[in-house]
Amino acid sequence: MRENELSVCNLTVSIGDRTILHEISFSVSQNENITVLGPNGAGKTTLLKAIASTIGFKGDITLNGKKISLMSPYTRASKLGVVAQHPDIDADFTVKTFMELSRYPYKKPWERLTSADRSIIEESLQLTGCTDFMDRQICSLSGGERQKVFIAAAIAQDTPIILFDEPLSHLDPVQRNKMSKLISVISSERKKTVITVTHEINEAIQNSSRIIVIDKGKIAFDGSCGDTSLKKVLDKVFETEFISADWISGRQPLLFPGEN
Amino acid sequence: MKRKTFLIVLVLISLAFLFLFPFAGTVSIPFSSLFEDSVKSKIFWDIRVPRVLGAFITGSILALAGMAFQSLFRNDLATPYTLGISSGSALGAVIAIKFITLSGTFHYSVIQVFSFTTALLTVIFLHLLTFKKRAESTYLLLLAGIAVNFTCTGAILFIQYIASGSESSRMVRWMMGSIDFIGYGSVFKLIPPLFFLLALLFYFHRDLDLISIDTEIAVSRGVNLAITEKAVFFVVSLAVAVTVANTGPIGFVGMIAPHIARKLIGREHRYLIPSSMMSGGILLLFSDTVARTIIPPSEIPVGVITAMSGGPFFIFILMRKGKNG
């Protein structure tokens, strides 16, 4: 077994009488950069929550052969970082304090941060462009700035796997592109496994190493971005004919929703 | 640095109040008479010092309890008082006053035991009702607290209605809340709850930081939500039950003191815990000193002072908050 291999086997999630995910199976190797696409209500966020073990599920989700749901919260937090959707958080903590809390899994309550902790926090702030507002309160930041802080905190948590739920929401097009590339860098240069759930099809196609499309709780596609069948699957899943625009040479074509 | 300065100022005010307030009272006590074998010396050491210490410790516990609940449930209205724990405790005291006919200090102990037990029963009821439904537990808990308050108030009014005149006046007196400690017995009873509460809250200070931001973020950082919530909820409730059994319900300190501390020092719990503790201690000590000196030689129950000053003060804070956005 390869290091940091995440395996999802026959995952089924039900809420009340409704089954959100039906027997999903796939595995993820170290430093893969996977994007999960799908229409609203397909079960994408539910998939991330199941991997993070914050909701109940049937089936097995293992990391290096060990069930994630059976890990202690501390161990789990040292293996899996999560950037969830947090548009409503109104915390009056400074960005600096919030970042310091990202080292929680590695510290006893009475332990102080070491210079190594501080340097990883500083590096994460620099990488995400948050250094300028590190002394500001989170509640005073714009939606985009907050999103960058949450991503910086996940990087500072320094886990082999990071789960991103809509990390590009609240960002302007330039920041969205930067952040999407940053996620790609986190995966390739820092050898981290990244699983991103997003609606941004073009950013996903340009920057991911693998795409999983979920439709009605089942995997409709699992393959590389260059796979010619991807567009057909997206057409079917989103019930529209995407228009493909080959604007930039050497890059994947951009997709725009059709009229119907 | 600003936060540390505030903490030092709070320590200095606490020490000044603890040192000076035993000298305040109807009987003037000069410093020179403190170590003489005299009535004044006895008043100072056996009545005023325990009372001043009792007021400070009670205020500290109530403020820490309020701060812990407000952080745990991310709501400034969540305090032991608003959650019905104090009225549960009052119901126990009223039952003991009406139905247990004993005399003297033993009866007082029975009242304390009843008050403590019913406070605990209230806590268990709230826990069973809300912790299984974690997602909506804050609103559910506050609504359950209101329901518990109404139910206990109804039961208390009924018992008062069937009680004799003297029983009824004792009930009213108990429910007003006061720190009329004589000797150090009650002070010693309050030291262990304060110690355990402080130790627990400092142990969980980072958990409380994260939970007060967002429970989902807290879980993703590795906080064991179930253990933290249960430990804090039960230890805080036990500390409050012991305190209220000794003093009667004293409202608003648990709501206002953490609010002041947060304004001064922010939400980071390693600073918020000591500042809430000292703010609560200072607030109740000041209120109690006003209560026993404002119309000499009689005393007003401190619960009356805290409620009368706390209510308008809280409205002032809320209005100011609204103005500043």
The percent range for strand residues of chain A is: 25-35%
CATH topology description of chain A: Rossmann fold
Helix content of chain B: over 70%
How many domains, in number, for the residues of chain B? Answer: 1
Report low-confidence residues of chain A grouped into runs of 5 or more: none
- Tell me about the biggest sheet of chain A? 6 strands, mixed
Q: Report the CATH C-level class of chain B.
A: Mainly Alpha
In CATH, the homologous superfamily of chain B goes by the name ABC transporter involved in vitamin B12 uptake, BtuC
Number of helices of chain A: 8
Explain what this protein looks like in three dimensions.
The complex is a heterodimer of chains A (260) and B (325). Chain A is an alpha/beta fold and 260 residues long. Chain A has one domain (6-256): Rossmann fold, CATH 3.40.50.300. Chain A contains eight helices and twelve strands. Chain A has helices at residues 44-51, 73-79, 95-100, 115-128, 143-156, 173-189, 201-207, 229-238; strands at residues 6-15, 18-28, 33-37, 58-63, 66-67, 80-83, 161-165, 193-197, 210-215, 218-223, 243-245, 254-256. In chain A, the strands form three sheets. Chain A has a six-stranded mixed beta sheet with strand order 6-7-8-3-9-10, sandwiched between helices. Chain A has a four-stranded antiparallel beta sheet with strand order 2-1-4-5, with helices on one face. In chain A, helix 6 (173-189) links the parallel strand 7 (161-165) and strand 8. Chain A is globular. By secondary structure, chain B is mainly α. Chain B has one domain (2-7, 52-320): ABC transporter involved in vitamin B12 uptake, BtuC. Chain B is 78% helix and 0% strand. Chain B contains 13 helices and no strands. Chain B has helices at residues 2-20, 39-72, 85-99, 104-130, 137-162, 165-176, 185-203, 205-213, 215-221, 225-247, 253-265, 269-293, 302-324. In chain B, helix 7 (185-203) runs antiparallel to helix 10 and helix 12 (269-293) packs across helix 13. Chain B is globular. Chain B starts with a helix and ends with a helix. The chains are: A alpha/beta (260), B mainly alpha (325). Chain A binds chain B through residues 52, 54, 72-74, 76-78, 80-82, 84, 86, 89, 91-93, 97-98, 101-102, 104-105, 107, 109, 138, 157, and chain B through 202-206, 209-210, 212-214, 216-217, 219-225, 266-268.
